[in-house]
Design a protein that fits this description.
single chain, mainly alpha
Length: 57
């Protein structure tokens, strides 16, 4: 996946994912995230940022 093709909401998710930050798209007109973006992130496209813990810990 080419990160330059990401929409603004997808870019927010892409940047937040390795730090395990929440992305709030409430109130945005365009809140769609393509499944391909989520799949790519889950398969390890972005390395974890050291010191970041999952929200459920």
């Amino acid at each position: 996946m080419d990160p330059s093709t990401l929409t603004e909401p997808e870019r927010q998710l892409w940047d937040a994912f390795p730090r395990r930050e929440l992305v709030d798209l409430t109130g945005r007109e365009d809140r769609r995230i393509r499944a391909d973006v989520i799949r790519t992130l889950l398969l390890g496209a972005q390395p974890d940022v050291p010191g970041s813990w999952p929200r459920w810990c």
